[in-house]
Structure formats: C-alpha cells, structure tokens
Design goal:
about 240 residues; alpha/beta; Rossmann fold; Oxidized Rhodanese, domain 1; 2 domains; two-stranded parallel sheet; 11 helices
Length: about 240
C-alpha cells in the first residue's frame, strides 16, 4: 500500500490518502469481527492530516463510527494520561518511523482532488493486505513478547562481500544520494523489498541503510523472518 501511494499519489495528498486507506482497511476488519466502532489517538491539529477538513475527508470513506477520545487534548495532556495508565514507557520506547512523508502536505484537502488521486490506486492491494493481515487480540500481546524474537546484526563497517542497500524512498535518494568509499551502494526503496529483494545477488551480504536506522532495522527483521540470512543493518 505504501508503495502504491509513494509511486502514484501527488506528494501533498499522500498523508490524507494514507489515512483514508487505513480507515478502509480497519473498517473491513471491523465488519469481519462485528466491531461497531474504530478508535484512534488523533488530536486536532497535531499533524497536517488532523485538521477538521482532512479528518472529515478521512471519515468519508467508511460508514463505521470513528471515535477520537483525544481529539481536544494537547500533547502534554496526552503524555500525562499515558503516564497515569502505565503506557508511557511503552510509548517512549516504541520505534517511530514514517514511510509516507510529504514535503508539502495539504492541511485543507479537496475531496475531488483526493478522489482523483485515488483513481490511480490499485485497490486489489488493499483487499489483499486485509485478507492476509494477522489480527492480534490486545490481551495476547504480553504473551507474544515472551516468544522468541528474531535478531538482526547492526554493523558500522563493511567487508569484501558486503553491499550497502539504500532503502530510502526515491525522492530522498535523489535529494541526498548516499556515497560510501570502498563499497558498492545499491538502491532499492523499502516498499519494494518484499517483492524485489530475492532478485538481488544472494551470495552478497546486504547492509540495509536509511537515515535514522528505524526503517532499515524493521525491514531487515522482516527479511530475516522470510528466511534471508544475508541481511544486516548499516549504522556508520
């Protein structure tokens, strides 16, 4: 889904389109389980997609009721609430990344323009994502954390058989190309890894790299879970 948005949707509209896709997906899951409402942690005006205009357009894609209990709270109030209910540490240590980042996100999206952008989207991908999704009962999360977790090695240097794999989006790579002396750098955006990584030379060790290191680690873990042992995270 992220790949479709990055490749087919206008930069300024991506955030709203992404949220609309999320609501569509969540609504399908809600219908499957007989859930009457969706709950989000959105707060009014906190980011560009959370203006009144944009929230209205996001809600328009679903008949499912969307509850936003934090809608009028500021960030400090939300942090205090998290502290009171015991989730502050969890929120603080949770890796944060954004796969869809607009350079100039709209704060007042126009419905006709959003719908025109979505005409380019392959909705069969959304259906496939929902169909194959792993739905987890929140009461089982603690039990799952006790299960064996796949680890991935982080390196700051490279060997003779290593290749750096720049997984940033195409726009990021164009704006700030990665050049590292003494090692080859290959470009493969993160949203293409699941389908294209297997086409790379598997005799090489691939060092995944992104600016902050969060996306590269996440994608390396996904690849390891798929059986690729020749991946590491590059953090110079």
């Amino acid at each position: 889904m992220v790949g479709e948005i990055l490749e087919k949707v206008d930069d300024g509209q991506m955030g709203v389109v992404l949220k609309r896709m999320m609501v569509r997906a969540a609504s399908k899951v809600a219908e499957r389980y007989g859930v009457q409402a969706l709950v989000t942690g959105e707060a009014l005006g906190q980011v560009s997609s959370q203006t009144l205009t944009n929230l209205r357009l996001i809600d328009n894609v679903s008949d499912t009721l969307i509850l936003r209990p934090l809608i009028s709270y500021d960030k400090e109030h939300i942090i205090n609430l998290a502290r009171q209910i015991g989730t502050e540490d969890f929120a603080r240590t949770m890796p944060e990344y954004c796969g869809v980042i607009s350079k100039s996100p709209t704060v007042k999206a126009i419905k006709a323009k959003i719908e025109a952008e979505e005409e380019n989207f392959d909705f069969s991908i959304l259906d496939k994502v929902v169909e194959e999704a792993n739905n987890v009962d929140i009461r089982e999360i603690a039990q799952q954390t006790q299960q064996e977790v796949v680890e991935v090695e982080t390196v700051s240097g490279f060997g003779p058989n290593d290749v750096i794999l720049d997984i940033r989006s195409v726009d990021e790579q164009d704006d700030k190309p990665l050049k590292v002396e003494g090692v080859d750098v290959v470009s493969l955006p993160f949203y293409k890894l699941s389908t294209k990584f297997g086409d790379l030379d598997q005799s090489k060790t691939w060092l995944l790299w992104c600016e902050r290191g969060v996306m590269s680690r996440l994608q390396a873990l996904y690849l390891r879970e798929q059986g690729f042992e020749n991946v590491k995270v590059y953090r110079p």
